[in-house]
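User: Show me a protein chain along with its predicted structure.
Assistant: Here is one chain, sequence first, then structure tokens.
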Amino acid sequence: MSSLQEIPNVKSFVTHLQCSMTHEVLPADELHNLSPAGKPILVRYDLESVKQSMTKEVLAGRPHNLWRYRELLPVRRTENVVSLGEIMTPLVTLPRIASNYGVNADIIVKDEGRLPTGSFKARGLVMAVSMAKELGVKKIAMPTNGNAGSALAAYATRAGMETIIFCPDDTPQCNMDEIALQGARLYKVNGLINDCGKLVQDGKDSTGWFDFSTLKEPYRIEGKKTMGLELAEQLGWDVPDAIFYPTGGGTGLIGMWKAFDELEKIGFIGSKRPKMIVVQASTCQPIVKAYEDGERHAKPWPNASTYAAGIRVPAAIGDFLILDAVRESKGFAIAVNNAKIRAALEEVATVEGFLMCPEGAATFAAYKQALSDGKVGTGERVVLFNCATGLKYPMPDGGTPLDRHAEIDFQKL
């Protein structure tokens, strides 16, 4: 349900914002893009008060949606929540695949395709748009590789905001169609997402639009953080041994790492952390290269391309936050090629009846590679993030023609 009756009417315990690089304290309840140091901004909470207000017993009585963690989310006034019904997404195990690979622990897919607009981008954008409404924003611009644009178009239209979106001209057609149909003005750019981002930046002063680019406002991280909150709760206030995450801008990985820290500080989980594993395409792997080179910042990837369009991000402004989480968790970064991504998608669909998106399939391809390389063990419980419904993407032609007027040998069907 998308009714405000499903949104807990409780206090948010935001205290201030903070530069992720310099730790400079910034005021909450004001509009911000990047910090004065030009880095992403993080939201901070009074966690002692959260601990008193949001107990496990209290949570047990709340609706099973993203907003159940209201004390750890930034929207202060319930009337500013812009919702389309953000459910807790299910955990789906892959038992036949586990058996086929001799794995004696759960391989779990968190299926984000069940969210409004069919992808995990709904988490970040519902929070960012709700905060934009709270802070008086009327006009938004953003670059997208597809699903983020779909989510922004939907939520901004729901909130009555004017929205301009720029996407690469080879963005999946279904994404471009839904962006336009859901009320945004869409421009198809002869370039990559970083080129689209430059257009947003270049037009900001003359148009007055607010820049919603990845990590250039503080609140998409808070929406994506709910993936970590949900996952821990669904696992009985525990964490898996490893998380394989399809990484473009990396907002979700950063958000989950923040979620686990906050959950420990309010006493919901212990000090155990999953290995955070970045998954990228071999033809666009800036974070993987930086990880392998021992760098904290990634160089832009030249001539980026991949079948999994959502992770075609040549440069991520939050690169150091991604790499910090990977290293602190004793995780790693891994790249897989297009052929392995396609094969992984087909394998999960034909063996388990589960249709992943290409970016989600990349996590399974990476898991198989890591399993073969000994980077994860057969006894480790892993979570793969399927970031969108596979129904959004082109599929191979299916079916065999059958003439009902001809003689049919049913034994051969």
